[in-house]
Amino acid sequence: MSTEHVETSLASQETQVPEENHSTPEILEGEKEMVTVFSDPVNFNVKHPLHSQWTMWYDNPGKKANQASWSQNLKEVITFDTVEDFWGIYNNVVRPSDLSPGSNYHLFKAGIKPMWEDSSNANGGKWVVQLPKKTGEHINTLWLYIMLECIGEGFQYENEVCGGVVSIRKGFYRISLWTRISDDKEICESIGRHLKNTLSLNPNQMIEFQSHADAAKSGSCNKDLYTV
């Protein structure tokens, strides 16, 4: 399921009528009419399950945070597993553009912490897209695209995707997509190209992939394994 189909494909599911019966099903007395989020975003009573559970995290550790203090500031916001719950969360959290510098939102598959040390991340890395501050409120749309692509599991190698991060800094924004692996060039570059398409980046704009192992050794991400 791709990002662009997260809503439309689900909407088509609810409106699709079996070929052998083109009439509208009769609602029997005492039965509730099925109302989806697509027809009533407030009073819906039907939910559409996602393939996986996802957890949203938040942190703002401050300028002088070390690894220990950073992990203490990492807060689990909520875990969800339906389309409707996702939109309920999205519509009720502060937008990235309104967060203070130093803040990060993390959206990861449930059971995976957004930390290098997590067993699902230990051998992986991340694609990094740095955007100028003049991106402004458009960062909110880009972050939404990444979240939809993740929960819709639209990547060709979706099982290798752990989650995404949006980081707010004083002079720039940064979006990262974390993967389980870092040593398979073909898979990593496929995910990177998909990320560029998701964000509608200029084909000439290069983005870099950095391994968590290198970052852990150097204390920063300054060695690029791949570019697309």
TrEMBL record:
<dbReference type="Pfam" id="PF01652">
    <property type="entry name" value="IF4E"/>
</dbReference>
<protein>
    <submittedName>
        <fullName>Eukaryotic translation initiation factor 4E</fullName>
    </submittedName>
</protein>
<keyword id="KW-0396">Initiation factor</keyword>
<feature type="region of interest" description="Disordered">
    <location>
        <begin position="1"/>
        <end position="23"/>
    </location>
</feature>
<dbReference type="InterPro" id="IPR001040">
    <property type="entry name" value="TIF_eIF_4E"/>
</dbReference>
<keyword id="KW-0810">Translation regulation</keyword>
<dbReference type="GO" id="GO:0003743">
    <property type="term" value="F:translation initiation factor activity"/>
</dbReference>
<keyword id="KW-0694">RNA-binding</keyword>
<keyword id="KW-0648">Protein biosynthesis</keyword>
<dbReference type="InterPro" id="IPR023398">
    <property type="entry name" value="TIF_eIF4e-like"/>
</dbReference>
<comment type="similarity">
    <text>Belongs to the eukaryotic initiation factor 4E family.</text>
</comment>
<feature type="compositionally biased region" description="Polar residues">
    <location>
        <begin position="8"/>
        <end position="18"/>
    </location>
</feature>
